[in-house]
Design goal:
single chain; about 140 residues; about 45% helix; about 0% strand; elongated
């Protein structure tokens, strides 16, 4: 069954919707002040550039007397030796285990277990010694 838009009930319904929308728009509020189309398309007098005036592109010239100097960087945070050892264990233990397996060299079992324990201990130390952050601090600086 195909629907036809030219049936009398459909046309009446479309006209009723159109009238309802027009009523809504009519009572919505103050209409905007829109200039007439003739005003929008009217030619505007723009002064033509003098000959030779527009030959060079725009160049930004910086004041040579006051060059820009950024503010000094804050000092780098001091890392304690314990945290340096923990970071070394966290990074180097997995790298060493993977590199030794890639060259097909097998470590004695006690050394392999020791590297895994050193990795876990390093991770645990770093997590346990994390400084709590202010929950309202998003890290932005002005």
């Amino acid at each position: 069954m195909t629907r036809r838009d030219d049936e009398p009930g459909d046309r009446a319904r479309a006209q009723a919707e159109e009238l309802a929308w027009r009523e809504i728009v009519h009572h919505y509020g103050e209409p905007p002040d829109v200039p007439a189309l003739a005003e929008l398309t009217a030619p505007v007098d723009v002064p033509a550039p003098a000959p030779g005036e527009d030959d060079e592109p725009f160049r930004f010239e910086m004041d040579a007397e006051e060059p820009f100097t950024p503010p000094p960087l804050p000092p780098a945070p001091v890392v304690t030796p314990e945290r340096r050892v923990a970071w070394a264990g966290l990074v180097l233990c997995p790298i060493l285990l993977v590199a030794l397996n890639l060259v097909d060299y097998s470590l004695p079992g006690i050394l392999s277990v020791g590297l895994v324990i050193a990795f876990i201990a390093s991770f645990g130390y770093l997590v346990a010694t994390m400084a709590p952050r202010d929950p309202d601090d998003d890290g932005a600086r002005v």
